[in-house]
Prior knowledge:
Blueprint: H1 11-34, H2 40-69, H3 72-97, H4 102-132, H5 139-154, H6 158-166
Helix pairs in contact: 1-2, 1-4, 1-5, 2-3, 2-4, 2-5, 2-6, 3-4
Amino acid sequence: MTGEARTNLDAIELLMQDHRELESLFSEFDHLEKTGKDTAGVIERACAELKIHDALENELFYPAVSDAAGEEEIEALLDDAEDAHDKALDRIEQVVEFDTDAQARNAHFKVLADEMKEHILQEEAELFAKAKKIKRLDLDLLGTRMKVRRDELMQGGGLAQASEAGA
């Protein structure tokens, strides 16, 4: 996803665009695997996107929603989302661990993709829907901050920083 395509998006639009990109990568993986082609490149791109997405949500989006909402119901949704991200980062480590064993790597990536698809559905249906209704949450300003952070993470060494931030 290019930086230009992300310009002027509010925080939720930016995150939903990330979700569409991830879903596209998961579909590409499925196609490559079914046709017996090498999946390493798409797995690497998906894991990199997931690390950046994790950093954006955990560093900026979730804290902003929590601060603006102050509701137990939203806190429970945020806890669930953070748990899903922790599991995803653990799965990414497993995928990387098996980078020389394509069968094991693909098996771990399939589990990661399935878990993320479920997380995306829940997050969009519940958390994003509630976040849109929080009057004290400036989604435009938050989107701008998230774009700046994404750009930082994508520059030299940024993925390592995202990985460390999520750990």
